[in-house]
Write a structure and sequence with these properties.
mainly alpha; 12 helices
Length: 274
């Protein structure tokens, strides 16, 4: 048995080495740089990353991610329910396939798509009379992020909605429960872990997005990812690379909190739905 365990560890060594190289080395460099100022260990970078414009950018990213997560979760859940309860098999397959594609559609192509459609000289903006520059604002960025957030929520909620057994509704009806009682006391408690997990997933996806916001709004909407890029490239300030690393460490902490919430919720929902 010990030999089998040893062989198992030997088989995992390439994966562990790859993990250490791809994630471990950058993580060490990130932490070392964040806690270094003027060549000496210091908390100055972390302190500065939570002040002034950097704090505004961090709060802006959190606000944007929270709004996108909540709106995407609500709209995506309703769309997933409509698809799951539809009797048209081809509609379900088409929506789920499209959701799988659109959930991974982002970056500069997504920004170009929206600029060409709803930008100042966009195809649709002239027809509906949108005010000039309305796309390049906080809410314009929210609408753009919803383009990939809603499909992602559909992919999260469709399996959870499929897990609602018809026998539960029948049992509730046999005991005199109305549709409201069924959803309030049976369906929603079962779906809540998946819904909250989806909200957290959408939050993390919007929080880490960079290319789309950079191509669309630049510095108009303060976001922490844009601040990091500006500090690293020295477009505005030179010698602020370690502050960028401190901002990145702040993002890692937020992402860690997100995952700490998401994983237990995912485990709890899997117990209900299997």
């Amino acid at each position: 048995m010990n030999r089998s365990a040893s062989k198992g560890w030997l088989g995992a060594l390439p994966l562990l080495a790859f993990f250490a190289l791809v994630f471990g080395v950058p993580a060490i460099a990130l932490v070392a740089g964040a806690f270094t100022a003027d060549g000496r260990p210091s908390l100055a970078n972390l302190s500065q990353s939570l002040q002034g414009g950097y704090l505004v950018a961090m709060l802006g990213s959190v606000k944007l991610s929270a709004v996108v997560a909540l709106l995407g979760a609500v709209l995506g859940t309703f769309l997933a329910y409509a698809v799951v309860t539809s009797r048209l098999t081809f509609l379900r397959e088409a929506v789920l396939t499209a959701s799988g594609v659109l959930a991974n559609f982002g970056g500069v192509p997504l920004a170009f798509f929206w600029i060409a459609t709803l930008g100042n000289s966009g195809v649709v903006s002239g027809l509906v009379g949108l005010p000039s520059g309305s796309l390049y604002t906080f809410w314009g960025l929210v609408v753009t992020y919803l383009y990939f957030s809603i499909p992602l929520m559909v992919l999260v909620m469709a399996p959870a909605l499929d897990g609602l057994r018809p026998q539960w509704r029948e049992a509730a009806a046999n005991n005199g429960a109305t549709a409201w009682h069924y959803w309030r006391f049976v369906a929603l408690p079962v779906l809540t872990p998946s819904m909250l997990g989806g909200v957290v997933l959408l939050f993390g996806s919007a929080f880490s997005a960079y290319a789309t916001a950079n191509a669309m709004v630049g510095t108009v909407v303060p976001l922490v990812t844009l601040k990091i890029a500006s500090a690293l490239t020295g477009d505005v300030l030179i010698g602020y690379e370690n502050i960028a690393l401190a901002l990145s460490l702040d993002m890692v902490v937020v992402a860690g909190l997100v995952m700490a919430i998401y994983l237990p919720l995912q485990k709890r929902s899997s117990r209900w739905l299997h």
